[in-house]
Write a structure and sequence with these properties.
By secondary structure, this protein is mainly β. It has no helices and eleven strands. Strands 2, 4, 5, 6, 9, 10 and 11 form a seven-stranded mixed β-sheet that branches. It has a four-stranded antiparallel β-sheet with strand order 1-3-8-7, with no helix packed on it.
Length: about 120
């Protein structure tokens, strides 16, 4: 099956920015339906951050990221991105990308990337 490879995590100071990327590791003619981002902070449950449909409609599930995070996708590259601005220590988490191939549920997951925001 298709593997998703993530990049773009790291350590930043509060107020800084990062852009996460997630791309298919192998060529395929299949086109993803929904793509999204999840995160899991230390000692916390995994939570849905944002999602985007094939046509580009976006949803931001967390009020805390609205206006700061922007999800986008490149259908040609089969990639999804998460631009994170004005980062806060509360954003510290492992971020996972995910893709749905049927528009029903998420099927494939990235390996996760650490985002650490210092005060």
């Amino acid at each position: 099956q298709v593997q998703l490879v993530q990049s773009g995590g790291g350590l930043v100071q509060a107020g800084g920015s990062l852009k996460l990327s997630c791309v298919a590791s192998r060529r395929t003619t299949a086109r993803p339906y929904d793509m999204g981002w999840f995160r899991q902070g230390p000692g916390k449950d995994r939570e849905f951050v944002a999602g985007i449909t094939r046509s580009g409609s976006s949803i931001y599930a967390l009020d805390s990221v609205k206006g700061r995070f922007t999800i986008s996708r490149d259908n040609t590259k089969k990639a999804v991105y998460l631009q994170m601005n004005n980062l806060k220590p509360e954003d510290t988490a492992v971020y996972y990308c995910a893709v749905s191939w049927d528009g029903i549920g998420y099927d494939d997951w990235g390996q996760g990337t650490q985002v650490t925001v210092s005060s």
